[in-house]
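2024-03-11 09:14:02 INFO queue: dequeued item Transposase, putative, len=478
2024-03-11 09:14:02 INFO validating residues
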Amino acid sequence: MIVIQAKLIFLTQQDKQIVLDLMKRWSSCMRFAYKRLLEGYNRNTLKRDLQGTFDLNSRYVDDAIMKARSILESARELGKSPKKVIFGGRDLFGKLQKRHINGKEYQKLKTKWQERRKGNLYSRGDKSKKGNLNTRIEVKENGTFLRINVGERKYVYTKIQAGYKKNKRREELLQEIRESNIPYSVELKLKNGNIYAYFAIEEEYPKIKITKDKGVIAIDTNAYPDNISWAETDEKGNLISYGSIPMPELASGNKDKKEYFRWQYAHEIVNIAKEKGKAIVIEGLEIKDKGKRGDFSGRKSRRIRHNFSYKSLLSKIKTLAKREEIEVIEVNPSYTSIIGMLKYSPQYMITKDVAAAYVIARRGLGLQEKIPDNYIKFLNALTVEELEELKEYVKKTVKNIYLKKKHLREINRAIKFLQSLESESGRVLKPLEGTSFSIYDFWRVFKVAVVTPLSPEKVPRDFSILKELLIQGKWGDP
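2024-03-11 09:14:37 INFO prediction written
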Protein backbone atom coordinates (compact mmCIF):
# COMPACT_ATOMS: atom_id res chain seq x y z
CA MET A 1 0.00 0.00 0.00
CA ILE A 2 1.39 3.41 -1.05
CA VAL A 3 -0.19 6.47 0.62
CA ILE A 4 0.36 10.07 -0.52
CA GLN A 5 -0.79 12.98 1.68
CA ALA A 6 -1.76 16.35 0.21
CA LYS A 7 -3.49 19.54 1.30
CA LEU A 8 -6.52 20.72 -0.66
CA ILE A 9 -6.70 24.37 -1.73
CA PHE A 10 -10.23 25.51 -2.64
CA LEU A 11 -10.91 28.17 -5.27
CA THR A 12 -13.73 29.70 -3.21
CA GLN A 13 -14.96 29.51 0.36
CA GLN A 14 -18.33 28.37 -0.98
CA ASP A 15 -16.73 25.32 -2.63
CA LYS A 16 -15.04 24.41 0.66
CA GLN A 17 -18.32 24.72 2.55
CA ILE A 18 -20.05 22.40 0.06
CA VAL A 19 -17.34 19.76 0.58
CA LEU A 20 -17.49 20.19 4.37
CA ASP A 21 -21.23 19.57 4.23
CA LEU A 22 -20.63 16.43 2.14
CA MET A 23 -18.06 15.19 4.67
CA LYS A 24 -20.48 15.83 7.52
CA ARG A 25 -23.28 13.85 5.82
CA TRP A 26 -20.89 10.99 4.93
CA SER A 27 -19.56 10.81 8.53
CA SER A 28 -23.13 10.71 9.88
CA CYS A 29 -23.98 7.99 7.36
CA MET A 30 -20.98 5.91 8.46
CA ARG A 31 -21.89 6.23 12.16
CA PHE A 32 -25.52 5.38 11.42
CA ALA A 33 -24.42 2.33 9.39
CA TYR A 34 -22.23 1.20 12.29
CA LYS A 35 -25.18 1.25 14.69
CA ARG A 36 -27.35 -0.67 12.25
CA LEU A 37 -24.65 -3.29 11.65
CA LEU A 38 -24.55 -3.85 15.41
CA GLU A 39 -28.27 -4.55 15.25
CA GLY A 40 -27.79 -7.13 12.51
CA TYR A 41 -28.85 -5.23 9.40
CA ASN A 42 -27.44 -6.48 6.08
CA ARG A 43 -25.64 -4.37 3.47
CA ASN A 44 -28.39 -4.34 0.84
CA THR A 45 -31.07 -3.14 3.25
CA LEU A 46 -28.78 -0.46 4.64
CA LYS A 47 -27.66 0.75 1.24
CA ARG A 48 -31.24 1.26 0.05
CA ASP A 49 -32.27 3.20 3.17
CA LEU A 50 -29.15 5.34 3.63
CA GLN A 51 -29.07 6.90 0.15
CA GLY A 52 -32.28 8.85 0.69
CA THR A 53 -31.65 9.60 4.37
CA PHE A 54 -28.27 11.27 3.86
CA ASP A 55 -28.60 12.41 0.24
CA LEU A 56 -25.54 10.44 -0.93
CA ASN A 57 -25.00 8.46 -4.11
CA SER A 58 -24.71 4.67 -4.14
CA ARG A 59 -20.90 4.60 -4.12
CA TYR A 60 -20.53 6.96 -1.16
CA VAL A 61 -23.04 4.91 0.85
CA ASP A 62 -21.31 1.66 -0.06
CA ASP A 63 -17.97 3.06 1.13
CA ALA A 64 -19.55 4.28 4.38
CA ILE A 65 -20.92 0.80 5.10
CA MET A 66 -17.56 -0.77 4.29
CA LYS A 67 -15.74 1.64 6.63
CA ALA A 68 -18.27 0.99 9.41
CA ARG A 69 -17.83 -2.76 9.01
CA SER A 70 -14.02 -2.47 9.19
CA ILE A 71 -14.27 -0.48 12.46
CA LEU A 72 -16.64 -3.10 13.87
CA GLU A 73 -14.35 -6.00 12.93
CA SER A 74 -11.30 -4.17 14.28
CA ALA A 75 -12.96 -3.67 17.66
CA ARG A 76 -13.82 -7.37 17.86
CA GLU A 77 -10.29 -8.43 16.91
CA LEU A 78 -8.83 -6.22 19.64
CA GLY A 79 -11.17 -7.76 22.19
CA LYS A 80 -13.03 -4.48 22.76
CA SER A 81 -16.77 -4.08 23.05
CA PRO A 82 -18.10 -2.79 19.67
CA LYS A 83 -20.89 -1.01 21.57
CA LYS A 84 -18.36 1.18 23.36
CA VAL A 85 -16.65 2.57 20.24
CA ILE A 86 -16.59 6.40 20.34
CA PHE A 87 -16.29 8.14 17.00
CA GLY A 88 -13.98 11.11 17.28
CA GLY A 89 -11.64 9.38 19.72
CA ARG A 90 -12.10 7.97 23.23
CA ASP A 91 -9.13 9.89 24.66
CA LEU A 92 -10.39 13.25 23.41
CA PHE A 93 -13.91 12.46 24.59
CA GLY A 94 -12.54 11.54 28.02
CA LYS A 95 -10.72 14.86 28.27
CA LEU A 96 -13.91 16.73 27.37
CA GLN A 97 -15.66 15.07 30.33
CA LYS A 98 -13.15 16.50 32.80
CA ARG A 99 -14.65 19.47 34.63
CA HIS A 100 -11.38 21.31 35.28
CA ILE A 101 -10.96 22.04 31.53
CA ASN A 102 -12.87 25.13 30.40
CA GLY A 103 -12.64 28.28 28.33
CA LYS A 104 -10.41 28.33 25.24
CA GLU A 105 -8.77 25.03 26.09
CA TYR A 106 -12.12 23.28 26.29
CA GLN A 107 -13.28 24.84 23.00
CA LYS A 108 -10.03 23.78 21.33
CA LEU A 109 -10.51 20.16 22.44
CA LYS A 110 -14.17 20.20 21.41
CA THR A 111 -13.33 21.52 17.93
CA LYS A 112 -10.65 18.86 17.49
CA TRP A 113 -13.06 16.11 18.54
CA GLN A 114 -15.82 17.41 16.26
CA GLU A 115 -13.39 17.51 13.31
CA ARG A 116 -12.43 13.88 13.88
CA ARG A 117 -16.06 12.87 14.31
CA LYS A 118 -17.66 14.77 11.43
CA GLY A 119 -14.83 15.67 9.05
CA ASN A 120 -14.34 12.43 7.11
CA LEU A 121 -15.00 11.12 3.63
CA TYR A 122 -13.78 7.91 2.02
CA SER A 123 -14.03 6.89 -1.62
CA ARG A 124 -12.75 3.59 -2.97
CA GLY A 125 -11.01 3.21 -6.30
CA ASP A 126 -12.52 1.12 -9.07
CA LYS A 127 -10.38 -0.81 -11.54
CA SER A 128 -13.26 -1.08 -14.05
CA LYS A 129 -13.69 2.72 -13.99
CA LYS A 130 -9.94 3.37 -14.39
CA GLY A 131 -9.40 5.28 -11.19
CA ASN A 132 -12.01 6.74 -8.87
CA LEU A 133 -15.42 8.07 -9.92
CA ASN A 134 -16.38 10.13 -6.86
CA THR A 135 -12.97 11.70 -6.19
CA ARG A 136 -10.92 11.83 -9.38
CA ILE A 137 -7.44 13.28 -9.97
CA GLU A 138 -7.34 15.61 -12.96
CA VAL A 139 -4.20 17.16 -14.45
CA LYS A 140 -4.56 20.64 -15.96
CA GLU A 141 -2.17 23.28 -17.26
CA ASN A 142 -2.22 25.22 -14.00
CA GLY A 143 -1.72 22.24 -11.69
CA THR A 144 -3.15 18.98 -10.39
CA PHE A 145 -6.75 19.04 -9.14
CA LEU A 146 -9.13 16.75 -7.28
CA ARG A 147 -12.63 16.59 -8.72
CA ILE A 148 -15.09 15.83 -5.90
CA ASN A 149 -18.61 14.61 -6.66
CA VAL A 150 -20.91 16.64 -4.39
CA GLY A 151 -24.25 15.72 -5.98
CA GLU A 152 -25.85 14.46 -9.13
CA ARG A 153 -23.63 15.79 -11.95
CA LYS A 154 -22.26 18.45 -9.59
CA TYR A 155 -18.53 18.69 -8.93
CA VAL A 156 -16.14 20.83 -6.91
CA TYR A 157 -12.56 21.24 -8.15
CA THR A 158 -9.85 21.77 -5.55
CA LYS A 159 -6.14 22.17 -6.17
CA ILE A 160 -3.85 19.47 -4.76
CA GLN A 161 -0.94 20.96 -2.84
CA ALA A 162 1.31 17.94 -2.42
CA GLY A 163 4.23 19.85 -0.97
CA TYR A 164 6.96 22.30 -1.84
CA LYS A 165 10.28 21.68 -3.64
CA LYS A 166 11.44 18.77 -1.48
CA ASN A 167 8.05 17.03 -1.89
CA LYS A 168 7.54 17.85 -5.56
CA ARG A 169 7.82 14.13 -6.30
CA ARG A 170 4.43 13.60 -4.60
CA GLU A 171 2.60 15.68 -7.18
CA GLU A 172 4.50 13.98 -10.01
CA LEU A 173 3.50 10.57 -8.60
CA LEU A 174 -0.17 11.62 -8.43
CA GLN A 175 0.01 12.70 -12.08
CA GLU A 176 1.56 9.34 -13.02
CA ILE A 177 -1.26 7.54 -11.19
CA ARG A 178 -3.84 9.57 -13.09
CA GLU A 179 -2.25 8.97 -16.49
CA SER A 180 -1.81 5.23 -15.92
CA ASN A 181 -5.47 4.73 -14.88
CA ILE A 182 -4.47 2.86 -11.70
CA PRO A 183 -7.39 2.51 -9.24
CA TYR A 184 -6.78 4.63 -6.14
CA SER A 185 -8.72 5.31 -2.96
CA VAL A 186 -9.10 8.80 -1.52
CA GLU A 187 -9.77 9.69 2.11
CA LEU A 188 -10.53 13.29 3.15
CA LYS A 189 -9.89 14.46 6.71
CA LEU A 190 -10.55 17.79 8.40
CA LYS A 191 -7.67 19.05 10.58
CA ASN A 192 -7.39 22.52 12.12
CA GLY A 193 -9.89 23.91 9.63
CA ASN A 194 -8.00 22.54 6.60
CA ILE A 195 -8.98 19.56 4.46
CA TYR A 196 -6.31 16.99 3.65
CA ALA A 197 -6.50 14.19 1.11
CA TYR A 198 -4.83 10.79 1.46
CA PHE A 199 -4.39 8.95 -1.85
CA ALA A 200 -3.81 5.20 -1.50
CA ILE A 201 -2.95 2.66 -4.20
CA GLU A 202 -2.49 -1.07 -3.85
CA GLU A 203 0.98 -2.03 -5.00
CA GLU A 204 1.09 -4.88 -7.52
CA TYR A 205 3.94 -7.23 -6.69
CA PRO A 206 5.80 -9.44 -9.19
CA LYS A 207 5.42 -13.22 -9.12
CA ILE A 208 7.34 -14.98 -6.34
CA LYS A 209 10.52 -16.67 -7.64
CA ILE A 210 12.61 -17.27 -4.50
CA THR A 211 10.78 -19.84 -2.34
CA LYS A 212 11.62 -22.12 0.60
CA ASP A 213 12.65 -24.94 -1.78
CA LYS A 214 16.33 -24.18 -1.07
CA GLY A 215 15.88 -23.24 2.58
CA VAL A 216 14.99 -20.10 4.54
CA ILE A 217 16.31 -17.10 6.43
CA ALA A 218 14.41 -16.53 9.69
CA ILE A 219 14.59 -13.56 12.02
CA ASP A 220 13.86 -13.16 15.72
CA THR A 221 12.87 -9.75 17.07
CA ASN A 222 12.74 -10.53 20.79
CA ALA A 223 15.97 -8.60 21.29
CA TYR A 224 14.48 -5.52 19.58
CA PRO A 225 15.32 -2.64 19.58
CA ASP A 226 18.98 -3.41 20.35
CA ASN A 227 19.49 -6.01 17.62
CA ILE A 228 17.79 -8.51 15.37
CA SER A 229 19.03 -12.11 15.11
CA TRP A 230 18.80 -14.29 12.00
CA ALA A 231 19.44 -17.93 11.14
CA GLU A 232 19.88 -19.65 7.76
CA THR A 233 18.86 -23.26 7.08
CA ASP A 234 18.85 -25.58 4.11
CA GLU A 235 15.66 -27.14 2.75
CA LYS A 236 15.86 -29.93 5.37
CA GLY A 237 16.08 -27.54 8.32
CA ASN A 238 19.81 -27.92 9.04
CA LEU A 239 21.51 -24.83 10.46
CA ILE A 240 23.96 -23.34 7.93
CA SER A 241 24.83 -19.86 9.20
CA TYR A 242 23.57 -17.19 11.58
CA GLY A 243 24.22 -13.66 12.69
CA SER A 244 22.98 -10.60 14.52
CA ILE A 245 22.40 -7.06 13.28
CA PRO A 246 22.84 -4.28 15.88
CA MET A 247 20.16 -1.60 15.69
CA PRO A 248 21.23 1.13 18.17
CA GLU A 249 19.39 3.87 16.26
CA LEU A 250 16.01 2.33 17.08
CA ALA A 251 16.53 2.53 20.83
CA SER A 252 16.02 6.30 20.85
CA GLY A 253 15.42 9.28 18.60
CA ASN A 254 12.47 10.89 16.91
CA LYS A 255 9.83 9.11 14.87
CA ASP A 256 11.18 10.07 11.44
CA LYS A 257 14.69 8.96 12.32
CA LYS A 258 13.48 5.57 13.56
CA GLU A 259 11.34 5.13 10.45
CA TYR A 260 14.33 5.83 8.21
CA PHE A 261 16.52 3.26 9.96
CA ARG A 262 13.76 0.63 9.97
CA TRP A 263 13.80 0.81 6.18
CA GLN A 264 17.60 0.49 6.19
CA TYR A 265 17.57 -2.62 8.38
CA ALA A 266 14.70 -4.13 6.39
CA HIS A 267 16.81 -3.68 3.25
CA GLU A 268 19.72 -5.41 5.00
CA ILE A 269 17.64 -8.47 5.91
CA VAL A 270 16.09 -8.74 2.43
CA ASN A 271 19.53 -8.41 0.80
CA ILE A 272 20.80 -11.35 2.86
CA ALA A 273 17.87 -13.48 1.70
CA LYS A 274 18.31 -12.36 -1.92
CA GLU A 275 22.04 -13.13 -1.97
CA LYS A 276 21.48 -16.60 -0.50
CA GLY A 277 18.38 -17.29 -2.62
CA LYS A 278 16.23 -18.18 0.41
CA ALA A 279 12.68 -17.37 1.53
CA ILE A 280 12.15 -15.26 4.67
CA VAL A 281 10.34 -16.52 7.78
CA ILE A 282 9.01 -14.05 10.34
CA GLU A 283 6.83 -14.18 13.43
CA GLY A 284 3.11 -13.54 13.12
CA LEU A 285 2.25 -9.90 13.84
CA GLU A 286 -0.85 -10.39 16.00
CA ILE A 287 -0.70 -9.37 19.66
CA LYS A 288 -1.62 -12.54 21.53
CA ASP A 289 -1.69 -11.29 25.11
CA LYS A 290 -4.79 -9.18 25.80
CA GLY A 291 -4.25 -8.92 29.54
CA LYS A 292 -6.30 -10.44 32.35
CA ARG A 293 -9.39 -8.39 31.54
CA GLY A 294 -9.11 -8.88 27.80
CA ASP A 295 -8.70 -5.14 27.21
CA PHE A 296 -4.88 -5.02 26.76
CA SER A 297 -4.53 -3.34 30.18
CA GLY A 298 -2.10 -5.82 31.79
CA ARG A 299 1.59 -5.09 32.49
CA LYS A 300 2.81 -7.65 29.94
CA SER A 301 0.31 -6.50 27.32
CA ARG A 302 1.32 -2.86 27.75
CA ARG A 303 4.98 -3.81 27.36
CA ILE A 304 4.21 -5.76 24.19
CA ARG A 305 2.33 -2.84 22.66
CA HIS A 306 5.02 -0.38 23.78
CA ASN A 307 7.70 -2.37 21.96
CA PHE A 308 5.42 -3.28 19.11
CA SER A 309 7.01 -0.86 16.66
CA TYR A 310 8.91 -3.96 15.50
CA LYS A 311 5.65 -4.69 13.69
CA SER A 312 6.58 -1.76 11.45
CA LEU A 313 9.99 -3.32 10.80
CA LEU A 314 8.47 -6.70 9.89
CA SER A 315 5.92 -5.01 7.62
CA LYS A 316 8.74 -3.27 5.77
CA ILE A 317 10.60 -6.57 5.39
CA LYS A 318 7.44 -8.12 3.91
CA THR A 319 7.00 -5.25 1.46
CA LEU A 320 10.63 -5.21 0.29
CA ALA A 321 10.74 -9.02 0.01
CA LYS A 322 7.66 -9.10 -2.21
CA ARG A 323 9.21 -6.46 -4.45
CA GLU A 324 12.32 -8.63 -4.77
CA GLU A 325 10.18 -11.72 -5.64
CA ILE A 326 11.02 -13.40 -2.30
CA GLU A 327 8.47 -15.57 -0.47
CA VAL A 328 7.60 -14.43 3.07
CA ILE A 329 6.26 -17.00 5.55
CA GLU A 330 4.61 -16.04 8.84
CA VAL A 331 4.59 -18.51 11.74
CA ASN A 332 3.18 -18.72 15.25
CA PRO A 333 5.89 -17.32 17.60
CA SER A 334 4.69 -19.27 20.67
CA TYR A 335 7.53 -20.81 22.72
CA THR A 336 10.18 -20.20 20.04
CA SER A 337 12.44 -18.51 22.60
CA ILE A 338 12.02 -21.25 25.21
CA ILE A 339 12.59 -24.11 22.75
CA GLY A 340 15.53 -22.28 21.21
CA MET A 341 17.29 -21.59 24.52
CA LEU A 342 16.78 -25.11 25.90
CA LYS A 343 17.24 -27.26 22.80
CA TYR A 344 19.46 -25.50 20.27
CA SER A 345 21.39 -22.91 22.28
CA PRO A 346 23.43 -25.52 24.21
CA GLN A 347 23.56 -27.88 21.20
CA TYR A 348 25.08 -25.38 18.74
CA MET A 349 26.63 -23.04 21.36
CA ILE A 350 24.64 -20.08 20.04
CA THR A 351 22.76 -17.26 21.79
CA LYS A 352 19.14 -17.77 22.74
CA ASP A 353 18.06 -15.14 20.17
CA VAL A 354 19.80 -16.92 17.29
CA ALA A 355 18.38 -20.21 18.60
CA ALA A 356 14.88 -18.71 18.58
CA ALA A 357 15.42 -17.59 14.97
CA TYR A 358 16.43 -21.17 14.14
CA VAL A 359 13.19 -22.52 15.66
CA ILE A 360 11.23 -19.96 13.63
CA ALA A 361 13.06 -21.12 10.48
CA ARG A 362 12.18 -24.77 11.15
CA ARG A 363 8.53 -23.85 11.70
CA GLY A 364 8.55 -22.01 8.41
CA LEU A 365 9.65 -25.26 6.75
CA GLY A 366 6.83 -27.14 8.48
CA LEU A 367 9.15 -29.17 10.76
CA GLN A 368 8.09 -30.39 14.21
CA GLU A 369 10.27 -30.07 17.30
CA LYS A 370 10.93 -33.49 18.83
CA ILE A 371 11.82 -33.75 22.50
CA PRO A 372 15.31 -35.32 22.97
CA ASP A 373 15.40 -38.57 24.97
CA ASN A 374 17.75 -37.10 27.59
CA TYR A 375 15.28 -34.29 28.21
CA ILE A 376 12.52 -36.86 28.81
CA LYS A 377 14.72 -38.76 31.27
CA PHE A 378 15.66 -35.56 33.07
CA LEU A 379 12.06 -34.47 33.57
CA ASN A 380 10.92 -37.96 34.53
CA ALA A 381 13.51 -37.83 37.33
CA LEU A 382 12.18 -34.47 38.53
CA THR A 383 10.05 -34.60 41.69
CA VAL A 384 7.45 -32.30 43.15
CA GLU A 385 9.59 -32.06 46.30
CA GLU A 386 12.47 -30.63 44.27
CA LEU A 387 10.20 -27.99 42.80
CA GLU A 388 8.97 -27.11 46.30
CA GLU A 389 12.63 -26.63 47.32
CA LEU A 390 13.13 -24.44 44.25
CA LYS A 391 10.16 -22.32 45.34
CA GLU A 392 11.77 -21.68 48.73
CA TYR A 393 15.09 -20.90 47.03
CA VAL A 394 13.41 -18.30 44.80
CA LYS A 395 11.66 -16.69 47.78
CA LYS A 396 15.03 -16.20 49.50
CA THR A 397 17.23 -15.17 46.57
CA VAL A 398 15.07 -13.12 44.16
CA LYS A 399 14.66 -9.51 45.28
CA ASN A 400 12.73 -8.15 42.33
CA ILE A 401 9.07 -8.44 43.40
CA TYR A 402 7.67 -8.72 39.87
CA LEU A 403 10.24 -11.36 38.88
CA LYS A 404 9.70 -13.29 42.11
CA LYS A 405 5.92 -13.47 41.54
CA LYS A 406 6.49 -14.58 37.95
CA HIS A 407 8.87 -17.38 39.02
CA LEU A 408 6.50 -18.58 41.74
CA ARG A 409 3.55 -18.70 39.30
CA GLU A 410 5.64 -20.76 36.86
CA ILE A 411 6.83 -23.14 39.60
CA ASN A 412 3.28 -23.68 40.89
CA ARG A 413 2.13 -24.40 37.33
CA ALA A 414 4.99 -26.88 36.91
CA ILE A 415 4.05 -28.64 40.17
CA LYS A 416 0.44 -28.91 39.02
CA PHE A 417 1.62 -30.34 35.70
CA LEU A 418 3.71 -33.07 37.33
CA GLN A 419 0.94 -33.97 39.77
CA SER A 420 -1.57 -34.27 36.92
CA LEU A 421 0.76 -36.47 34.90
CA GLU A 422 1.10 -38.87 37.80
CA SER A 423 -2.65 -39.32 37.95
CA GLU A 424 -3.29 -39.37 34.19
CA SER A 425 -0.45 -41.31 32.61
CA GLY A 426 1.53 -43.03 35.33
CA ARG A 427 4.27 -40.37 35.36
CA VAL A 428 5.46 -41.19 31.85
CA LEU A 429 6.21 -38.10 29.77
CA LYS A 430 6.83 -39.88 26.49
CA PRO A 431 4.60 -39.64 24.65
CA LEU A 432 2.17 -37.01 25.99
CA GLU A 433 -0.81 -38.56 24.25
CA GLY A 434 -3.57 -39.51 26.64
CA THR A 435 -3.06 -36.44 28.82
CA SER A 436 -4.82 -33.09 28.84
CA PHE A 437 -1.52 -31.25 28.29
CA SER A 438 0.25 -30.08 25.15
CA ILE A 439 3.87 -30.33 24.14
CA TYR A 440 4.33 -26.71 25.21
CA ASP A 441 3.59 -27.64 28.83
CA PHE A 442 6.69 -29.82 28.71
CA TRP A 443 8.92 -26.93 27.63
CA ARG A 444 7.39 -24.65 30.26
CA VAL A 445 8.16 -27.09 33.07
CA PHE A 446 11.61 -27.77 31.65
CA LYS A 447 12.39 -24.04 31.71
CA VAL A 448 11.34 -23.89 35.37
CA ALA A 449 13.49 -26.91 36.27
CA VAL A 450 16.63 -25.77 34.41
CA VAL A 451 16.72 -22.03 33.73
CA THR A 452 15.20 -20.71 36.97
CA PRO A 453 17.75 -22.32 39.35
CA LEU A 454 20.58 -21.55 36.90
CA SER A 455 19.90 -17.81 36.90
CA PRO A 456 16.89 -16.74 39.01
CA GLU A 457 17.54 -12.98 38.72
CA LYS A 458 17.57 -12.80 34.90
CA VAL A 459 17.52 -15.01 31.81
CA PRO A 460 21.13 -15.75 30.78
CA ARG A 461 22.32 -15.14 27.20
CA ASP A 462 24.85 -18.01 27.22
CA PHE A 463 23.56 -21.57 27.68
CA SER A 464 26.81 -23.44 27.04
CA ILE A 465 26.76 -24.62 30.66
CA LEU A 466 23.73 -26.79 29.82
CA LYS A 467 25.52 -28.76 27.10
CA GLU A 468 27.02 -31.33 29.46
CA LEU A 469 23.87 -31.46 31.58
CA LEU A 470 21.25 -31.82 28.84
CA ILE A 471 22.96 -33.01 25.66
CA GLN A 472 25.20 -35.56 27.37
CA GLY A 473 22.69 -36.39 30.09
CA LYS A 474 25.04 -35.84 33.06
CA TRP A 475 22.70 -34.59 35.77
CA GLY A 476 22.60 -35.43 39.46
CA ASP A 477 26.19 -34.29 40.07
CA PRO A 478 26.32 -31.66 42.85
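2024-03-11 09:14:37 INFO annotate: The first strand starts at residue 2 and ends at 10.
2024-03-11 09:14:38 INFO item closed
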